[in-house]
Amino acid sequence: MRCPVTLPNESERLSALSEYGFDDESLLPSLDPVVQIAIRMFGMPVAAVNMIGSDHVFFAAATGICEVDMGRDVSFCAHAIAQDGVMVVGDASRDERFHDNPLVTAPNGVRFYAGVPLLSVQGQPLGALCVIDSQPHEDFSPQDRERLVELARMASDRLELRRIEVASSRTRPLFEEYAGTSPTPVVWFDCWGEIAAWNEAAANLFGYDLAEGSGQAFELLLPEPQRAAFRALINGASDATSLDGMAVPGEIAGLRKDGSELSLGLTLFSWSERGKLKFEAVLKDLTAQHQEEEALRQLASVDVLTGLANRGQFYRRTEDILVQSRPAAVLMIDLDGFKDVNDSLGHAVGDGILRQVAQRLDRLATAGATVARIGGDEFAILEPNLLSPEHAMRFAQAVIASIAEPIIIDAHEVRVAASCGVALAPLHAQEALELVGDADLALFKAKSSGRSHAFVFVPALKMEAAARHLYGMELHRAVANGEFLLFYQPQISLRDGSLRGAEALIRWQHPQRGLLSPAAFLPSLEGGPLAAIVGAWILDEACAQAAYWRRNGAPDLRMGVNLFGAQFRMGNLVTQVLEALERHGLPAEALELEITENIVLNHDDTVLSTLQSLRSYGVGIAFDDFGTGYASLSLLKTYPLSRIKIDRTFVIGMLETQQDLSVIRAILDMARSFDLETIAEGIETSAQRDRLRVERCTEGQGYLFAKPMPSLQFEQLYEIGTRKVGSA
Hints:
This protein is an alpha+beta fold. It folds into 4 domains: 10-156, Beta-Lactamase, CATH 3.30.450; 175-289, PAS domain (Beta-Lactamase, 2-Layer Sandwich); 305-458, Alpha-Beta Plaits; 467-718, EAL domain (TIM Barrel, Alpha-Beta Barrel). The protein is built from 26 helices and 27 strands. An 8-stranded mixed β-barrel has the order 19-20-22-23-24-25-26-27, surrounded by 4 helices. Helix 2 (32-42) runs antiparallel to helix 5 (142-168). Residues 723-728 have low confidence and may be disordered.
């Protein structure tokens, strides 16, 4: 644990802090609204204003935390006051300053911290305003930092009032020394209500010159209806020689010199001087404060770009509805391929698209609904009027269709797609966090199914998510222990039934769960740090197997290898492929690399340049799952493809629906026009094979020919290594 540094001006800082009169028992109620706004604004469970003493920390205000006796040595805020601006600790358990701090290692300890110093009028750091969570956050944005700084300014204003209050209870200096230059309006007056002194801030507040205050009746600064009550208050305090027990209003109306009124915050103090009571009024123009608080409330609940509710407000609205036991549906919506739009057309166009999408969603929602921008290109709708999965699905499809309509921005016609996940209360959950989480799981399922899909939550998704998490934790062991293996599925000539190639498909031989299919672990693998490592292993293993088979009976066999997006991000894929080919003595034309639309859309121009380079060496490039996405047609012109793989969904339905058959015909016609080879996936019946042969599809793969199998079984089936390769 790294202890906070002692500031070079520590003695001056402590002297300034002493003017505020804080100790172990001191709390400042006027700071409570600040920490409460912070809680709502950032969605954090804890917010506090901490004053930093020489060896101790004093809570001036806090919410979401029990009373804590805290030394300076463990305080995050003690670190925050030593720097300019906002100090953000995204994950304290991974920060060398705090990872072994007892506040972090304790159960439900601190994982996230953001704090900004609170300065005296002279600029001395007194303490810090902070927000805290037991969960890490890496998404505390520059806008969030600005909002925290604004809240700190509000807290500093209220601390200044505290300093004036404390000073008034001590031996009185001359007014000029005490409040003459203070930015806070201060007025001194006697027991007859006559002003003895006021500062320039007070004079400006009421529209007077500084010299006009002395000798004027204080009650003339109040509207006529309030003067009698204020006079009675002063007379009563004078008779009792104290303000103790008197009902002093916290807000009053003020009267400017020009006759206009204003709302004022009032803090009233008294002291005895030569047997007569004297008074001090500390004032604040609440008009500005109310505007400030309203602006902060807006920042805490509204997305600035779109004007929709933000994430925090959406959760609060969801909680409000579920607390009332009202049925409702939550729709989580994510734009597909939006990053590509931002990268190609610029962020100004991207922002315009987000605003138009927001308007469309707002028009679709009913009067009682809440539409929110959750962040980035993700939106959400809380719709109380959707009571059944069927109705919710129809609404989700209407949302997807609306977003898919062309958007005109700065003379650009742009089309974006969307995926949608749906969850309903009370059917799926009765608490806000669980309901939103269920909708997120449904969204993940929808996105994994391809573009423009909607999915309604089912309980099995939680089991899938748990499995993904578990598998993600076990993947490192699997790589280290060599638990992955390759199966191979034959690719067959539809003209004569001969073996043309094989597709390498990964499997996981799990020590407890047995042989796992890719569907069980690929989502965890693809999104994690091991994808590039496993991808390199697949490439090398498949090349080795292909070289062996070509030397032992299958001289023309082609090996298909699926690529991960992470392999492109590493920047060395071309070198990796060429080295694998050379290492195993495999010619470039014997290798075919398969890519999906997601790889193309989620990466930059390096994908295109990498594929162009590989193609120039003779390596085949196949586009997998063709026909299921929006960018497929443009890919034929842009990318150096050698083969199109027709998605199994069209093959399965082509004998039943004219639409699927028409899609296959269109794909085959396009392939021929671009001089590309074709292969149909998912062939399961002779009728499907025969129809594809009539439509002049070149090759096929599927259960009709063989399921994916280990290399030894593949060799036995096609007599590799013993006799000439047979037909299927």
